[in-house]
Amino acid sequence: MRSITSIKTSLSAGSYDMMLKSLYCRPAEMLGPYRDRIVRALDGFMKEFDASEDTEVSVYSAPGRTEIGGNHTDHQRGKVLTGSVDLDAIACAAPNGSNEVHIYSEGYGLTTVDISNLEPVKEEENTTKAIIRGTLAAISSRGYEVKGFDAYVTSDVPGGSGLSSSACFEVLIGVTVNGLFCANSIPLAEIAKIGQYAENVYFGKPSGLLDQMGCALGGIVAIDFQDKENPQYHAVDFDFASAGYALCIIDTGADHADLTGDYAAVPAEMKSVAQAFGKEVLCEVDEAEFYGSIAKLRKQLGDRAVMRAIHYFTDCHRVEQQVEALEKREFDKFLKLVSSSGHSSYMYLQNVATYRDPADQPVALSLAMAGYYLAGRGARRVHGGGFAGTIQAFVPLDMVEEFRKGMDSVLGEGACRVTYIRPVGGCTLID
After folding, report:
1. pTM surpassing 0.70?
2. If 174 and its partner were Cys, which of 15, 191, 276, 290 is the partner (CB 3.0–4.6 Å)?
3. Residues 6+ apart with CB under 8 A from 12
4. Under CATH, which number does the domain 240-419 receive?
5. Domain residue spans of the chain
6. Residues 23-80: tens digit of each pLDDT
7. CATH for 2-236+422-430 (1.10.3720.10, 3.40.50.2000, 3.20.20.300, 3.30.230.10)
């Protein structure tokens, strides 16, 4: 830990520039806003927690993530391809010597959790307090020490963006506790599991592990969730810019509010297919046996559940093919697989609209307009949970500016973000 004064001095002198360049994928001459952001967090910590320039703190970071392949496959213990991005949440934190955790989130205010009671609280479901309490509980249950601390958090991962702002926050709390009290002894993959537990059990959202793993591990990562307790993963070394493409995330302007039922129906219907074979999730079902039983399944479960299972099997295969294409530098093949995944999500998974209001289909319209502005080049697909939020597009570098202007003209200024794959996951930024 270092005093706030010394951190500010080192920032001004450029002492942290190498780390900042790695995290934010920017050259030194563009790091000013990122240094200023850390200073703002330090000043916010002093203000909210009545600290001084001599107070010793540490600074932690957790990135958002983009889902590159495998849409709604993780909760069935399938295969995914994910990548951390250059948007993140940071926490300026220090122990406070009490039994309380105080987290001030910029733009949202203060949340306090008493660590003497880490049991789930029903009334806290769908709240920030639930995520904090659940993360602390999961760390404590694994035998690690949890103590009181203060943290000032600021994030540029937009909520409801498909970049996993909630998982980013969970991982941030995990790496903060890990750094403050556990000597960074908790593996990042374990921190991901801790975050998922908090989201599933305390927050009340039945998510898979993709989001948390993407935020925790860093870089492009292929993950196979078949082994529930020990997911297999490996890094995929690839730079999209070197292939002549930018990765764009486009905010459709649709809100995730009141969509929990739509999200929950996807894993529920997939699991209903698995249960028809006496299994828990689809990764345990023999694919050939599934296809041989469709006539029976559709009568038993309905067509949508069957189609969602079809999407699961085909998208897991596509992940394998995407990884192979990237590792062999066959980018045109990769783009075709991205498009194929998008078509499958649209047609079979059916997570581009809720159809509650047929006139309101911002995700579908955004996909159509992205196709129009790409003019037969690149690829686009629904991104993340779907139904609302964002879409993803791989855009040739020579088209990026016109593509961005076109999408912004339809969806609003700033809707299209050009993102970069961050090579570092959850980490201690300054200690």
Report:
1. yes
2. 191
3. 35
4. 3.30.70.890
5. 2-236+422-430, 240-419
6. 998 999 999 999 999 999 999 999 999 999 999 999 999 999 999 999 999 999 999 9
7. 3.30.230.10
